[in-house]
Write a structure and sequence with these properties.
Order of helices and strands: HEHEHEEHEHEHH
Strand order of the largest sheet: 3-4-5-6
Largest sheet: 4 strands, parallel
Shape: globular
Helix content: 25-40%
Strand content: 5-15%
Number of strands: 6
Radius of gyration: 17 Å
Number of helices: 7
Length: 198
């Protein structure tokens, strides 16, 4: 909704279920709309062949098509900072997104592709319901407006110091802008193994 409010001329929405899309379908006047399984290459290819008649400028959580000036916003998680029993598949997968964003920047940044591993905040979604320990439920208080607004901000030139890095919608954007020299100078907000022998 934030991209629609920001004046995007074309939106294509995909989700794991059509039910999730029905609440936002009215925002899409032009663009794609449908169910897609991003783990199924045939499903992804079919969606793009049937719906994508214009180049992609901003991509959130899918595989990017190379286009100068495009922004790839990959949905990561603050879970990459922790080890939670029973969440190994989820947290390992989200950790890999941090690295993928970095590789996209290394391989395509010079061609104008911008990439971010983006934690959208702790919003209560169907994926969370019934899967989060009850003692963690109070943490899920962030709004979809916060998530969307931050994603729109990532498409601006103010975020050039954050390309190829992990970012979180819950962070203060003015503070991020004020510490950009530290982020670049110390190569912060990237997944690394710290320490070692020899």
């Amino acid at each position: 909704m934030a991209f629609a409010a920001a004046g995007a001329s074309r939106l294509s929405l995909i989700a794991r279920s059509l039910e999730n899309l029905n609440t936002t379908k009215h925002l899409v006047e032009k663009g794609g709309f449908g169910q897609i399984d991003v783990s199924d290459s045939i499903s992804v290819k079919k969606f793009f062949e049937n719906n994508m008649t214009a180049p992609i400028d901003i991509l959130v959580n899918s595989a990017a098509q190379e286009k100068p000036g495009a922004t790839a916003i990959m949905t990561g998680s603050m879970g990459t900072d922790y080890v939670t029993e029973g969440w190994s598949a989820y947290q390992s997968g989200k950790t890999s997104i941090n690295r993928i964003a970095e590789f996209v920047d290394a391989e395509y940044g010079s061609k104008g592709i911008r990439s971010f591993a983006y934690h959208p905040g702790n919003t209560w979604t169907g994926m969370v319901n019934g899967r989060v320990p009850s003692d963690l439920e109070p943490l899920f208080k962030d709004t979809v407006e916060l998530s969307g607004g931050f994603a729109v901000w990532l498409t601006t030139e103010k975020t050039s110091s954050l390309k190829g890095r992990y970012v979180a919608a819950t962070w203060d954007v003015e503070e991020l802008e004020s510490i950009k020299e530290s982020i670049l100078g110390s190569d912060l907000l990237k997944t690394r193994v710290i320490g070692g022998a020899g």
